[in-house]
Amino acid sequence: MVYLNGKTLPAGEARISPFDHGLLFGDGVFETVRAYGGAVFQSDAHFRRLVRSARMVDIPLPFDAAGWSDILHRVLAANGVTDALLRLTVTRGAGTPRMGKPEGPPTVLAFLRPSPQGEPVEWERGITAALVDVRTRSGATLDPGIKSLSFMSNVLAIRQAWERGADEAILLNGRGFVAEGSVSNLFGVWDGGVVTPPEGDILPGVTRAVVLDLARSAGLSVAEKPIAAGRLGAAQELFVTGTGWEVMPVTHLDGAAVGDGRPGPITRSLYAAFCRRVATLHEDQPAA
Ligand code: PLP
């Protein structure tokens, strides 16, 4: 079951116009959130990022914070699930194929897929990453902080990573510094301190913000600063964060082991802290 423009209906019956600007021009914004036990993790932070993305590209969001929450919970309820990744897309709308000027109102589409399964095994093994040739956008082209539908660089990046047998791509920015993954933010550990690339070159991940907070609360040395690509090979630990990956160790980069090739102690402690944070979700937010 999906949500489309005010209605919950079977995916096979959902009809989107051939002239929708999301389809024609990648003209829209989106968010992916995760529900645990019926409650959406960091719902307010995701909504704030969606509001910012929409404002930056001048798409009027046709719902407020309560509407946002209502749509997500309607999709969960319609599918009878409590644990899922939910994606909500807002396009500029349909009505005329003239770029930038649809006549219709924004299109709102939301659907879910079950949360990734088998995580404990994958987490222990960690994922592999490849440093790809595709570069991220810079603020001079399109602010990478906007979660827009124009996702072609990320698509090309992950395809290149897969070609090289890796699970995730690491992209550099236009100046040759490490930026982020195709669907994740990257963290590394050097000399026992946690470092992640600064905002401005990346999509500021909601999970990244939580992990930064957890790392600071744990008294770790934390820095948001540029990372030269050449330093990645010397990292004691690498991990990615994201709504889907949560906190996932990167145990191999371009075929070489990171550290001893197993999830490191800081990654382990931050993942444990992240799981504890998720567990508190039901203390401060009522389940659907
Ligand atoms: N960076 C990019 C390019 C992404 O697409 C995503 C998530 O989709 C992230 C980072 C992680 O963001 P979040 O933690 O909000 O899921």
Give the number of DSSP strands: 15
**DSSP helix count?**
8
- Residue-averaged pLDDT, rounded? 94
Domain count, please report it: 2
Helicity range: 25-40%
Order of helices and strands: EEHEEHHEEHEHEEEEHEEEEHH
What small-molecule ligands were found? Answer: pyridoxal-5'-phosphate
Unreliable residue runs: none
What does the radius of gyration come to? 19 Å
Layout: helices, strands, pairs:
Blueprint lengths: L1 E3 L2 E3 L11 H5 L2 E9 L2 E2 L2 H14 L8 H15 L4 E8 L15 E8 L4 H7 L1 E9 L16 H12 L4 E5 L5 E4 L3 E6 L2 E4 L9 H12 L4 E3 L12 E6 L3 E8 L2 E2 L7 H15 L1 H4 L4
Parallel strand pairs: 7-8, 7-14, 11-12
Antiparallel strand pairs: 1-2, 1-6, 3-4, 3-5, 5-6, 8-9, 10-11, 10-13, 13-14, 14-15
Bound molecules: pyridoxal-5'-phosphate (PLP).
Offer a concise description of the structure.
The protein has eight helices and 15 strands. It is of the alpha+beta class. A hairpin with a 2-residue loop joins β1 and β2 (7-9).
Description:
The chain is α+β, with helices and mostly antiparallel strands. 29% of the residues lie in helices and 28% in strands. It folds into two domains: 2-114, D-amino Acid Aminotransferase, Chain A, domain 1, CATH 3.30.470.10; 127-279, D-amino Acid Aminotransferase, Chain A, domain 2. Strands 7, 8, 9, 10, 11, 12, 13, 14 and 15 form a nine-stranded mixed beta sheet that branches. The protein has a six-stranded antiparallel beta sheet with strand order 2-1-6-5-3-4. It has helices at 21-25, 43-56, 65-79, 119-125, 152-163, 206-217, 265-279, 281-284; strands spanning 2-4, 7-9, 28-36, 39-40, 84-91, 107-114, 127-135, 168-172, 178-181, 185-190, 193-196, 222-224, 237-242, 246-253, 256-257.
